[in-house]
Design goal:
- The chain is an alpha+beta fold.
- Among the domains are: 87 residues; 263 residues, Rossmann fold (3-Layer(aba) Sandwich), CATH 3.40.50.1820.
- It is built from 12 helices and 38 strands.
- A hairpin with a 5-residue loop joins β15 and β16.
- It is globular and about 70 Å long.
- It starts with a helix and ends with a helix.
- The N terminus and C terminus are likely disordered.
- This is Acyl-peptide hydrolase.
């Protein structure tokens, strides 16, 4: 030791030992900051965005508005209220940055303004109702607002709420609760005079307002069928920006038309159209379409792609439309040349892009995440991708994250399935390890090369973790997505078991230490799988269901049920078939942990309670965790960490991982 010390003195060097990296643990959820909603300034020099972080004392997330210069050299926090701010939007003249906040005792969210010349934020509106969306007119004089009518039904002077009076077909929805007849309408707000004018009225909802470049018209989305509760037939409409103006319907597709965006010259509107024209549209992939602002037959730009596209954005010259494309575990930025119909890949790699906003000077602002890096802001210009923010560096710096790779498996019927594999960073080559099949929800969606916090945390606990893009997932074409229509728990389970067989055959997974879990449809598939195959030694089913017949009228999916399965009293056999995890619960031998949110109207907690009760009666080790006041997605940070703590304890108990050897920190 002395010789080393004197050597350092003689040479003038300092021996610094870098801190050892550690596996990720559930409490790291509290350190993760989330970037959302990038918005480019009219001069192209700044990108505003929201950044949310956890307030540990209040046990909640709080979002603030920030901005970063286009060259990435300057970063400025614009708001710091404990109430939180969202939806930053630049006024087109560049003078203001607006945002939505509920401050100073307001019960309803209001629009606030930050003057770029300096000063504190000022409240712009005093709305009576729920502000759901807003959009600046290009002339910066008027703002289009979407406001849901105020709820005056509860006028009781005591804390006892008046009864809910319901007469709708679709009468409940997660987070919103029981649905009444209040509609969301368009309003015009004059920034200078603060006058609010009604643009639409009636019993229908209007959403997604976008201004024409000359500030004279607004395109929007609405379902004007006889009973919108019974279908998803949204269309595009155009209305002049003046009170009592008539509206014009542009589209007549029986499916969904949404996400309108005006061309720079105001002659065309790009939008997303569903592939299917049925009443219920889940197993679908949106197609980029363009229609004249005067109406007529639309041009289906991406129909031949057979991949879902989203976030359509016109180029500055109006000659192309950029989109995000979900394709086989990746999401890339593409741009369609309107003249030729050619799709150019603008930015692509083993990563996942999310969100896309045009820079008026050329290029795009986007969010992108990689397998070992949560989402950051990037600039895409001239075929190059340039990172703007470095917010996540502090999060990943102390962590030893799992290595991530793709793998291909085949199911018993020969179907090829593309999956994701997470290996603990310190796993020995060739070592058979405890393995968890952690199944994504949806079912429409895909596991991809973006950052996956859930699977990283499970891998940090010393497990190989696999994400299976079973049939029903997106990114592999419409036929692959629709393959499970009306036939739940069949092909998906075959795909999960095929991936399991692959991992065992390759010497990756220890066949004696297999676990399975998931949330939402991932929880449902967990139930289906353990009722089909007894090889799994532990399971964690979150926000799932099994006795599907009891979900009719209990959750928010009445349209799906009636269109995909039919009504229970007419198609009883089909309902019983898809309810087999509960009806054949005596086949389940896997110790299973069930979880859910107390107020979940998406997949009500009853689905987990039923399975818990069944396994309890059968003597199979089981546990039920109910998170108070939570909806389908857990929002309280301490509950989020608790969920993964319980996952790891449950799997550790039954899969008996060598935690000390793997260095999980436990």
């Amino acid at each position: 030791m002395k010789s080393i010390f004197f050597l350092c003195l003689l040479t003038g060097t300092v021996l610094a030992q870098s801190p050892a990296k550690r596996p990720i643990v559930p409490s790291d959820i509290l350190r993760l900051q989330n970037i959302t909603d990038p918005q480019v300034s009219p001069d192209g020099q700044w990108v505003a965005y929201t950044l949310s972080s956890v307030d540990k004392d209040k046990d909640k997330r709080n979002s603030d508005v920030w901005m970063i210069s286009w060259d990435g050299k300057q970063s400025v926090q614009l708001t710091s209220s404990p109430d939180g701010e969202s939806s930053p939007r630049w006024s087109p003249d560049g003078r203001f940055l607006s945002f939505v906040a509920t401050r100073n005792g307001d019960k309803d969210s209001q629009l606030w303004l930050l003057d770029r010349r300096g000063g504190e934020g000022k409240k712009l509106t005093d709305l009576k109702g729920e502000l759901e969306e807003y959009e600046w007119a290009p002339n910066s004089k008027t703002v289009a607002l979407v406001i849901r009518d105020k709820d005056y039904s509860d006028s009781a002077k005591t804390k006892i709420r008046t009864p809910y009076v319901i007469d709708r077909h679709h009468f409940k929805e997660d987070r919103k609760g029981y649905l009444d007849r209040r509609a969301a309408h368009l309003y015009l707000f004059d920034v200078e005079s603060k006058k609010l004018d009604t643009l639409t009225a009636g019993t229908y909802d209007e959403t997604a307002p976008v201004w024409s470049p000359d500030s004279k018209q607004i395109a929007f989305v609405s379902n004007r069928t006889a009973d919108p509760d019974k279908n998803e037939n949204t269309d595009l409409f155009v209305i002049e920006a003046r009170t009592k103006a008539p509206m014009k319907q542009l589209t007549t597709w029986a499916g969904t038309d949404n996400n309108p965006v005006w061309s720079p010259d105001g002659t065309q509107i790009a939008y997303l159209r569903s592939t299917a024209s049925t009443n219920f549209i889940m197993y679908d992939q949106p197609v980029l379409a363009v229609i004249s602002a005067d109406g007529g037959e639309p041009k289906l730009v991406s129909a031949a792609l057979d991949r879902p596209v989203r976030n359509p954005r016109w180029s500055v010259d109006g000659k192309s439309i950029a989109v995000l494309v979900d394709d086989d575990r990746r999401t890339y930025v593409g741009a369609y040349e309107l003249a030729s119909g050619k799709l150019n890949r603008v930015a692509h790699d083993d990563c996942a892009y999310a969100d896309l906003e045009q820079n008026p000077k050329g290029g795009w602002a986007t969010l992108m995440s990689k397998p070992q890096l949560p989402a950051e802001l990037y600039a895409v210009e001239n075929g190059n991708v340039r990172r703007l923010t470095t917010i996540q560096d502090a999060f990943v710096a102390p962590l030893q994250l799992a290595t991530v790779e793709g793998f291909t498996s085949r199911s018993k019927d020969g179907t090829q399935v593309e999956n994701m594999l997470f290996k603990p960073a310190n796993a020995s080559a060739g070592q058979k390890m405890p393995t968890i099949l952690f199944i994504h929800g949806g079912p429409v969606g895909q596991d991809n090369f973006g950052f996956d916090l859930s699977r990283q945390i499970l891998a940090g606990g010393g497990y190989v973790v696999a994400g299976v893009n079973y049939r029903g997932s997106s990114g592999r074409g419409l036929a692959f997505c629709k393959a499970i229509y009306g036939d739940w728990g069949n092909k998906e389970v075959a795909d999960i078991l095929g991936a399991t067989d692959y991992l065992v055959a390759k010497g990756i997974a220890d066949p004696a230490k297999l676990g399975i879990g998931g949330w939402s449809y991932g929880g449902i598939l967990t139930n289906y799988t353990i009722a089909t195959d007894q090889r799994f030694k532990a399971a964690a089913s979150g926000a799932g269901s099994s006795l599907q017949m009891t979900m009719y009228g209990s959750d928010q999916y009445v349209n799906q049920y009636e269109n995909e399965l039919g009504t229970p009293w007419k198609n009883t056999d089909k309902w019983l078939k898809v309810s087999y995890p509960f009806l054949k619960a005596d086949r389940i031998k896997t110790p299973t942990q069930f979880m859910g949110g107390e107020k979940d109207f998406n997949v009500p907690i009853a689905g987990s309670e039923q399975m818990y009760q069944a396994l309890k009666s059968l003597g199979v080790p089981t546990q039920l965790i109910v998170y108070p006041g939570q909806f389908h997605g857990l929002s309280v940070p301490s509950y989020q960490t608790d969920r993964f703590d319980r996952y790891l304890k449950w799997f550790d108990q039954y899969l008996k991982t060598s935690v000390a050897v793997l260095g999980s920190g436990k």
